[in-house]
Every structure is written in C-alpha cells, then in structure tokens.
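thought: fold this chain, then report.
action: predict
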Amino acid sequence: MLTGLASPFDPYGRQARLFPGLLTVFPVLLCALAWYPELLSGVGSTLLTICSSCGLLYGLSSLARTKGKQVEERLLNAWGGWPTTLALRHTNRDLDSHTRQRYHTFLANHAKLTFPDAASEERNPAAADAVYASAIKWLKERTRSKEYTLVEKENAQYGFRRNLRGMKGYGVTLCMLALVVCASGVFITNLDLPSQLTERPRETLTSILASQSMPRWSALVADISAIGGWLLIANDAWVRQAGFQYAEALLACCDRIGITSSGPGRRKAS
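observation:
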C-alpha cells in the first residue's frame, strides 16, 4: 500500500520528507491497529485512501521539511556554515591540504573564480566563504545526473536525518502518548491489578502476559524502542555526520567531472 500512497513523491521526497513524517506517526498508528485491528477493514482502508488523496501525506512531508529547515538553521550557526563550505576552508582539518588544494585548483579553473589563499581567508572570512559558496553552487549544477548517484544518495540521507531531527519533539510526544494508551489499555482490562500484584506478583504478571494479544505487546515494545531511538539516535551529531558525508561525496566529484559525462540535469530537492 505504501508504494501506491507514496507514488506522487520522487525518490528524494520519499526518503527525505515522507519517511520522517511517517516514522513520527508510526507508533500511534501501530498502537491503534494493535487495539483496533478492524481499522484494517474495508472502511478503514477507504478512509486512509481518502485522507491521502486529500493531501495528508503531502502535509506530513511538508511539516517534516519545515521542522527540518528550522533545525538546519540552528545547526549551521553552530557549525559555522554549510559542511561543503567548511570543507573548502584552509582552516578545516577534515580534508588533507593536498586534496583541498586540488579541489581549489579544479573549481577555480572551471568555475572561473579566484580562490583565496590562507592569509586572504583569515583577513576576510566572509569574502572567502562567498567564493566557496559560488563554487559549490557551480559544482551542484554539474552533478545533477545519474552519473553521480552517490551524491544524490548522500543528499537524501542528509535530508532524512535533518527532517527526522526536526520532528523529534513530535516523535517523542506521540511515542509517549501511544505508550500511555497501550499501558492504560492493559490496566483497564485488569482493574484490580495493583492489589493482585501485591498479593500474587508472579501469577498476576503471567496472567497479564497471557491476557493480551501478541500485537498489543509488540506495539508496546515498539513504542519503547521508538522512544529510545528518538532520544539516542536522532541528535545533532547524527545530522552533522550526514552533512559532512554529503560534502565529501560532492567535492569528490571534482575528480570525476571531465572523465565521465554529466548528462542532462536532474533536479535534487533540498
């Protein structure tokens, strides 16, 4: 079903925008389906299709991008600029000086720009960054084709992590809500649970485990796992890693342009 629902989205849109939105609401959907499996019936499926047709998925993906852009603005201030710009600075240590100089020489020759040396960069960092940004813009336009699939994949990976980080607040809140709902469902079906746990803890726990179906326990475990994922994985460092991996893949194209034909351009969203 997902393939059909996601068909209006291009590959980047699905991975970087739609998937973060879906992962955010997944715990609530899983909880609802575990407790109310009849939602998968014809009526539930029809309602889902209608909601999707009315722009639900597009709205969810748009929200993920908006929240991701807000996070990105904060991260860029913390990093000191775009990873691609940082990689070209003389002060950057992620690239060795020889590789950086090779990239500078290539971009200066092909993009018709005058690259600053280390002293000029130190005297006027803003002017140096403007040159680097222009060079990166030129390079992006030359790598929008099937010849540079790694760049496209790393770009989508960065977009996915950035947008998922942006949805973190919603994700944790919805996971906690789903967790409370699932736990409350177990409690409601065993109203005398506190007294039973006090008097016969082992027998009561065994009875509780047997009283609920496997899908309901699976939903509960999934909610707890999702909370752990949001808190431990979807952080600023995770986004930064993807950003610099994209910068590395993009700049590495300097060694390929001219060797492989770029072909017709293909847009990569951001």
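thought: worth noting. Residues 16 and 159 are 5 Å apart (CA to CA).
final: tokens above.
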